[in-house]
Amino acid sequence: MFQQAINPVDSVGVAYRVMGDGPPLVLVHGTALSSAIWRAFGYVEALRHEYQLILPDMRGHGRSDTPHEPASYAMDLVVGDVLAVLDQLGHERAHYLGYSFGGRVGLSLAAAAPERLRTLTVGGGSSLPQAGSFDRLFFPGCVDVLDHDGMTAFLDTWNAHRSTPLDPATRAAFDANDPRALVAYMRRCEQEPGVPDASLAAIDVPTLLFVGSADVTRLDDARRVASLVPGAQLAVLDGLDHATTIAASDEVLAVVRPFLAGH
Question: How many Å apart are CA 139 and CA 38, to the nearest integer?
Answer without folding.
Answer: 25
